[in-house]
Amino acid sequence: MPETFGDTTKLLRRAEDNAKLVPVRVLLASIMCEKGDLEGNLARHREVLAEARRADCDLVVFPEFSLTGSVNPLDHPDRAVPIDHEIVTRFLEAVAQERLGALFGLAERSNGQFFITQAYTFGGQMAGVQRKRHLAEDEAGFSLGSETAIFEWGAARFGSIICAEGGVDFTWDASAAAGAQILFFCSAPGLHGRRGDHDAWRAGFDWWEGCGLSDARHHARRLGIWVAMATQAGSTIDEDFPGIAALVAPTGDVVDRLSDWRPGTLVVDVPISIDVDPVRSAVRVLVIDGAGSTLLVEFGDEGTGRRWWVPPGGGIELGEDDLMAARRELLEELGRDDLVIGPCLGRRGGTFHLDGGWFTQYERWYLCRCDHFQVDAAVLARGRSEGIRDLRWWLPAELRAQGIDTGPRSLANLVDNIRAGRLPDPDGDLGR
């Protein structure tokens, strides 16, 4: 059996100590959404998605009309798009690439009708839509939605309230009754008259605080539910919007918010667990040879076509500690039972969507330094029969140059840091 080095107390940590329940992390985007500028709006959405990835978010929430900009279908029906429009498809692909969920807004054209729609996507798929159920007086060109949609990210369930719906009870009541734990209040409240100076912007912002934010606080307190706001912000071609991004607690208190009307983003942790039972504990071993290459295994999702590379490892079985599980996994996946394992490098994990379902896995990672070796063909064949698509050594530079999808995303940097003698905090989070 292999010897170990490092902190053996951490190395032999029991599997049940690996799991750590976490809240849902959300980026609320109050951004400028130019009318009819699909390409420009998509570019801004991509920037926000990248920011959310860097902040280790689960969900991104965009304002009403975020992708198309605000639309009056009586004047500009051409600015509304079908749900399968290529700009929507490209956005869905961008969300999947960042491994996020996103709630976004558009003026939707469907079978000769127009709807104000918040759509939800993850994994490259359209997961559902909420069509506005209560219209403002200046939205006569739109049709009413009739259904109440509830979306999910892991175990968390949420709904969407769209601008003018904030001023009535039935939309909030229907979403709460359907099981929403948090409601995202997505808006594009155009201001009457252009904002020419600071005082004019302040007046418009004060109005939306007294109207929209007040509604959010009222309904949060009335229903005992979390509410988060994402409002269009800034000057479009012919209309101005007073951005507010805020998180409101079930008490009606504002937990966090942006400071003024200007475009910005707000990252909030909502204390609603996304973990899906049963939570799986696992171990992974980062195998690095003398040249700085790391041995990774490739997995794939049949439904989405996504492929990614991670170090060898897997679930901890009943009666095993981390070290026992690590030895078994290396024998199964690499055919080696003589490798030195340790020290502990940290932890990672969370809730993921794979092959049509949600699951939660938390991992403890360990280091293995060794000479370069080749995995026996029979071991490779057995691994492929059990879901492993491929197995190979990678240099960090190769991972970066080829844009390889790894878990975590910063795996190449981690290998470089280890080679330079900079080991991570063994109790730290290695990232998504």
Give a description of the structure.
- It is a single chain.
- The chain is 24% helix and 31% strand.
- With 432 residues, the chain is an alpha+beta fold.
- The protein has two domains: 8-20 and 276-419, Nucleoside Triphosphate Pyrophosphohydrolase; 23-273, Carbon-nitrogen hydrolase (Nitrilase/N-carbamoyl-D-aminoacid amidohydrolase, 4-Layer Sandwich), CATH 3.60.110.
- It has a six-stranded mixed β-sheet with strand order 5-4-3-2-1-14. Strands 6-7-8-9-12-13 form a six-stranded mixed β-sheet, with helices on one face.
- β19 and β20 form a beta hairpin.
- α2 runs parallel beside α3 (86-97).
Largest sheet: 6 strands, mixed
Mean pLDDT rating: 93
H-E order: HEHEHEEEEEHEHEEEEEEEEEEHEEHEHH
> Could you please say which CATH topology of the largest domain applies here?
Nitrilase/N-carbamoyl-D-aminoacid amidohydrolase
Q: Helix content range of the residues, please?
A: 10-25%
| Count of helical regions | 9
Low-confidence stretches: 1-20
Structural class: alpha+beta
The CATH architecture of the largest domain: 4-Layer Sandwich
Kindly provide the radius of gyration, computed on alpha-carbon positions and rounded to a whole number of angstroms.
24 Å
Strand order, sheet with most strands: 5-4-3-2-1-14
